[in-house]
Amino acid sequence: MMHVPRKRFGQNFLRDPGVIREIVAAIGPKPSDRLLEIGPGEGVLTRELLQSGAHLDVIELDRDLVAALKQRFAGVERLRIHEGDALKFNIRSIAQAGRVRVVGNLPYNISTPLMFRLFDQLDAVEDMHFMLQKEVVDRICAGPGDGSYGRLSVMAALYCEAQHLFDVGPECFYPQPKVVSAVVHLVPHAAPPDSELVRRVGAVVAAAFGQRRKTLRNALKGVLDETAIGRAGIDPGVRAEELSLDDYVGLSGQLNI
């Protein structure tokens, strides 16, 4: 399958067989699995996932790639190809009785909003393996005190346990991106956060990291006063990057919204 990559879709196709095998080994697909691949592109990972015997749905926005995938995998009953935008795709529609394992080489330009779209459907998700820009993976996996720790780190931790698996160099793609990529494994918490908790934590985190160079007493002005911060057991003199997820959950409990 030879396809001219389209910049507007953020297409960088993985071509390295060794990396593809490493990704499949990390996923460990089984015949009993129901998989969803986001952005299958030329189908190189799709082919390997199908060899596991698993049932596979793929969602692809590029209509030319959809046509090519249908031709390449014609007659494969365990594969369903969906043409559409992954940002609008309803995972619950394919989950049936079980939950879906999600995989994909995500376009860099929509990776963060796409992950949060998936976070909203975690009741239908078993786990997720994504290829992302390494900088994004570093931010997802960072902890307090880490230079990459920020808003995305806290919000991702509210939904999932994250593990940085391995890096992938630009030479493994066509066309070559200007950045290093990485594969991350995300496992939803047994009890997903409710929408009210997400709203409250999100409000505190946005304010705290919106002025991350300031102490909490200054960064959270208009959201929480110094007394409320103290009630949560937090020193108002610390900065946003020093707080854990539990700290932010505690602060969110002081909100009067």
Category by helix and strand content: alpha/beta
Report the sheet-strand fraction: 15-25%
Mean pLDDT, nearest integer? Answer: 93
Largest pleated sheet: 7 strands, mixed
Q: Give me the count of strands.
A: 9
Total of DSSP H or I helical runs spanning 4+ residues:
11
Going across the major beta sheet, what is the strand order?
4-3-2-5-6-9-7
Sequence of secondary-structure elements: EHEHEHEHEHEHHEEEHHHH
Helix content: 25-40%
Q: What is the CA-atom radius of gyration, in angstroms? A: 20 Å
Task: Tell me, briefly, the overall form.
Answer: elongated
List unreliable stretches of 5+ residues.
none
| Gap between N and C termini | 54 Å
Explain this structure to me?
This protein has helices at residues 17-27, 44-50, 63-72, 92-95, 111-119, 134-141, 151-159, 195-210, 216-219, 226-231, 245-252, and strands spanning 13-14, 34-38, 55-60, 79-83, 100-105, 125-133, 160-168, 173-174, 181-188. The chain is an alpha/beta fold and 257 residues long. The strands form two sheets. The chain has a seven-stranded mixed sheet with strand order 4-3-2-5-6-9-7, sandwiched between helices. The chain has a two-stranded antiparallel ribbon with strand order 1-8. Helix 7 packs antiparallel against helix 8 and helix 8 packs across helix 11 (245-252).
